[in-house]
Design brief:
The protein is α+β, with helices and mostly antiparallel strands. The chain folds into 3 domains: 3-114, Beta-Lactamase (2-Layer Sandwich), CATH 3.30.450; 119-193; 196-367, Heat Shock Protein 90, CATH 3.30.565. The protein has 10 helices and 14 strands. Strands 2-1-6-5-4-3 form a 6-stranded antiparallel β-sheet. The radius of gyration is 28 Å and the shape is elongated. The two termini are 54 Å apart.
């Protein structure tokens, strides 16, 4: 490829890598240098497969394009670079016509694009559909259980009044207490179906309320640190629902840390996010709330199901905390997701900011 053609590639916003017939790297444009955090001069001449870990899919795509003399796109490619987190990319491989002044043989042009945004949107849509299905399942289940449950408790109460032997009252009391416990559970299952009562609120007031509740509940072994962006605009939402959503997540984190026996740390972080798509709608701004803990992490076999109702990784857990949190966040047109490995679990809540609620002010951050 001629120097003039290479200079044209320098202007592209997409990452471009040029390799020769032996699949050795000849050139990276500036976008590729930024994406892979490597210099074109330093890696020139190195084999392509040595630059990336798990490069078999990429090499196969290159070989296919070369064998068939056509462009080929690999839409879902994961590459590890320099020990950093794996990149989710699409890659289009195109054979390059030979230049009369370039006798070294065939070249191939590799054009990389991030697909993180597409993956995130697809994941959010799946979670939204799942949340709606969960709400319908919960509502039907709770209504089916509440009616016979009331009859059981009423019958136990009447029986308790008729018993002559005091020792037998213990059994009817057990029936009534367990019926009351199940009734409370059904009420919790039905709670998300009330409509939000929106008002102007500061997300930090929500976080501080939850923080105080958790610190009062866990007086030892749990440290909560804050990293707040105090310039965030106000939200329009139901304060009590958002408190409950954050509380459920934070309590799970505190329980995981306390259960590990080593104590630990939870970090609350807030930031503004620009130009995001939430629940299939585009917003100029959203508020991101991150809840990070250094506990043992969520078991891999539960990670695909943690938002499903009645799924719990803790003995004695109801399996409703994250389901309710997801429902409350969805009712605010937001999304929630997590990433978890041993020693680092991060739940992220994104809540949209309506244009009329956007505020200015000087950016400031609070850390503790």
């Amino acid at each position: 490829m001629t120097p003039a053609a290479l200079s044209g590639l320098d202007l592209l916003a997409t990452a471009v890598v040029l390799v020769d017939a032996g699949l050795a790297v000849r050139y990276l444009n500036p976008a590729a240098e930024n994406l892979f955090e490597m210099s074109s001069n330093n890696i020139a001449g190195q084999p392509l497969k040595e630059l990336f870990s798990d490069s078999a899919v990429l090499v196969a795509a290159v070989e296919y394009a070369r064998a068939n003399n056509c462009s080929y796109t690999e839409h879902d490619l994961e590459l590890g670079v320099n020990g950093r987190a794996r990149l989710h990319l699409s890659c289009t491989v195109t054979p390059v016509e030979l230049s009369a002044r370039d006798p070294r043989g065939e070249e191939l042009l590799l054009e990389f694009r991030h697909i993180e945004q597409q993956l995130r949107i697809a994941r959010e849509e799946r979670m939204l559909d799942q949340s709606q299905a969960n709400r319908e399942l919960i509502r039907n289940l709770a209504h089916e259980i509440k009616n016979p449950l009331g009859g059981i408790r009423g019958a136990a109460q009447l029986l308790d009044r008729e018993l002559e032997r005091p020792a037998l009252h213990e059994y009817t009391q057990v029936i009534m207490k367990e019926a009351d416990r199940l009734q409370s559970l059904m009420d919790r299952l039905l709670t998300p179906h009330r409509l939000p009562q929106p008002g102007q609120l500061n997300v930090h007031e929500v976080l501080e309320r939850v923080r105080s509740l958790i610190l009062a509940e866990y007086t030892r072994g749990v440290t909560i640190r804050r990293d707040y962006d105090m310039s965030l605009p106000l939200l329009k939402g139901d304060k009590e629902q958002l408190i409950q959503a954050v509380l459920n997540i934070l309590r799970n984190a505190a329980q995981a840390i306390a259960g590990s026996g080593a104590g630990g740390e939870i970090r609350l972080r807030t930031r503004i996010v620009r130009q995001v798509t939430l629940a299939r709608r585009r917003y100029r701004h959203a508020i991101a709330v991150e809840i990070r803990d250094n506990g043992p992490g969520i078991p891999p076999d539960l990670q695909e199901r943690v938002f499903h109702p009645l799924v719990s990784g803790r003995e004695g857990g109801s399996g409703l905390g994250l389901t309710l949190a997801q429902n409350f966040v969805n009712q605010h047109h937001g999304v929630i997701w997590f990433e978890s490995v041993p020693g680092a679990t991060v739940f992220t809540i994104l809540l949209p900011v309506e244009d009329r609620d956007e505020g200015g002010g000087t950016r400031a951050e609070v850390r503790s």
